[in-house]
Design goal:
- The chain has 444 residues and is an alpha+beta fold.
- It folds into three domains: 2-40 and 346-429, Beta Barrel (conserved putative lor/sdh protein from methanococcus maripaludis s2 fold); 56-94 and 216-254, OB fold (Dihydrolipoamide Acetyltransferase, E2P); 99-213, Four Helix Bundle (Hemerythrin (Met), subunit A) (Up-down Bundle).
- Helix content is 38%, strand content 31%.
- It has helices spanning 2-23, 97-151, 157-213, 410-443; strands at residues 33-35, 37-53, 56-60, 73-78, 84-85, 90-94, 217-219, 224-225, 227-228, 242-243, 249-254, 259-266, 278-283, 286-298, 303-304, 311-319, 331-348, 353-355, 358-362, 369-371, 373-377, 381-386, 393-395, 407-408.
- The strands form six sheets. Strands 2-12-16-14-13-17 form a six-stranded antiparallel beta barrel.
- A hairpin with a 2-residue loop joins strand 18 and strand 19 (358-362).
- The longest helix is centred in the middle third of the chain and has 57 residues, at 157-213.
- It is elongated and about 155 Å long.
């Protein structure tokens, strides 16, 4: 871009001046000057990032570890990162020791639950048999009391009444026994149900454990390049790392036809970034090439990266074309074009001086302090909106004896000062209106 070419010339001038100064005596002083340039002015936000695939397929270990109460599994073998695999190729294997321990423990539990189920069935059978025999005895007693009552028809009334009472008592005892038998049946069925359920669960768990063991050798679900899974801390999962039921992924197979650069922007510059901004990317691995991209996602919420106190916002940049030479995890240098101005005047930032809120330059021809009005800046240059003309020459550094120079352009300073006061007033009014609106909503 043109601004970079100009900045390169400015740096070259500085180097030449330093060389000239070093070749002269100690009493020689070289004043470095720069020319006010005109042209396109691009405002860029530069940041480093890392390449990722836009889409990728996860290579997962067993998904149902939680169901069999296995909490962590160690990776004991993994193909080298970057390996090209076909669908069904071996990717890695997991440590089976914890599952074998669960199988051994579960085998003991299965024997115990089998014995418990058999004992429950036997106990309930014996208990119900006793109740059934008791009911038979009470039926015989009722029949016997009925016979006695029938034979006492010619006995005194007291004898007849006694026989009726004995029959009624025997019938009530029989009825109570039958009710208790039904209750005992329900109780016995419940005990058998839970014992059988527990036994069935043990069988199902054993079957699931055996099935999970077959998943401890992990194979590629599709063709692709193996990229190790990254932990939240940024470290990659490798041999010796562990997977959990919540996150059983050990690697990914990225789609290299669509690449993105994931980067982070500080909170000062995030307001400048919008979806759709164009980006020029450089790849450290290919310094001679430049790539084009577009911002496709801007995080709404900031985050704090590990080992850093600054808040940053994640930005996703999609490369416009497909490049077979690019690989995930390559470092990118992203220059995000946030805005561009046509035919404006600009100077290097180092040529701008200030006194309180007044910005000025030291002019070469008039040898005075010229007050200027400034616009947007980028990393190296700043726009000059008033106070200078194209090709005006100004000092890059403070010239000797400039303390006695006159100041020109105080009217520009007054306009800048007035504009700043108006902007501050407008901002205070907006804050007051927002505060009133919030209070109104709170009152509702």
């Amino acid at each position: 871009m043109k601004k970079r070419w100009i900045y390169g010339i400015a740096i070259l001038l500085v180097v030449i001046a330093v060389i000239i100064y070093s070749t002269r005596g100690d009493d020689s002083v070289v004043d470095i000057t720069v020319i006010v340039e005109s042209g396109q002015f691009d405002i860029l936000v530069s940041t480093t990032g890392e390449l990722h695939a836009l889409n990728s397929t996860k290579v997962r270990g067993p998904d149902n570890l939680r169901a069999v109460r296995v909490h962590r599994v160690e990776i004991i073998d993994l193909v080298p990162e970057g390996t090209i695999v076909e669908k069904g190729d071996f990717v890695g294997s997991l440590d089976r020791n914890e599952v074998h321990d669960r199988l051994n423990s579960q085998a003991d539990e299965l024997v115990e639950d089998s014995a418990n189920f058999a004992q429950t069935v036997l106990d309930t059978t014996m208990s119900l048999l006793d109740y059934r025999n008791g009911i038979k005895d009470r039926r015989f007693l009722v029949e016997e009391c009925q016979i006695i009552l029938d034979q006492s028809q010619y006995e005194p009334p007291a004898t007849i009444r006694q026989a009726e009472m004995n029959l009624d008592k025997a019938e009530r005892a029989l009825e109570q026994s039958m009710v208790q038998l039904e209750l005992k049946k329900s109780q016995a069925n419940n005990k058998i149900y839970w014992a059988e359920k527990r036994l069935r669960e043990e069988y199902d768990e054993r079957t699931e454990l055996m099935a999970i063991l077959e998943q401890f050798d992990v194979y590629a679900p599709q063709a692709g390049m193996v990229i190790y899974k990254k932990e939240w801390s940024g470290a990659k999962r490798k041999v010796g790392s562990s997977i959990s039921p919540q996150d059983p992924v050990i690697a990914t197979l990225p789609d290299l036809s669509q690449m993105i650069s994931k980067t982070y922007i500080n909170e000062i510059d995030i307001s400048k970034i919008e979806i759709g901004h164009t980006v020029e990317l450089g790849i450290d691995a290919f310094p001679e090439k430049q790539y084009k991209g577009t911002v496709i996602e801007v995080a709404n919420v900031g985050e704090q990266l590990p080992n850093s106190d600054a808040k940053v916002f994640e930005i996703i940049i999609k490369l416009n074309e497909s490049y077979t030479s690019l690989r995930p995890s390559m470092t990118t240098v992203n220059h995000i074009l946030t805005s561009s101005y046509e035919e404006v005047l600009f100077l290097p930032l180092e040529a701008i001086h200030s006194n309180d809120s007044m910005s000025f330059v030291y002019t070469v021809k008039q040898r005075r302090k010229q007050v200027i009005d400034l616009g947007e800046t980028n990393s190296n240059f700043i726009i000059v909106t008033e106070g200078l003309l194209e090709n005006d020459e100004v000092y890059f550094t403070i010239p000797e004896g400039s303390d006695d120079w006159d100041i020109e352009g105080l009217d520009i300073y007054e306009k800048v000062k007035t504009r700043r006061i108006e902007e501050e007033k407008r901002m205070r009014e907006e804050e007051d209106n927002l505060r009133k609106l919030q209070q109104k909503e709170y009152t509702k």
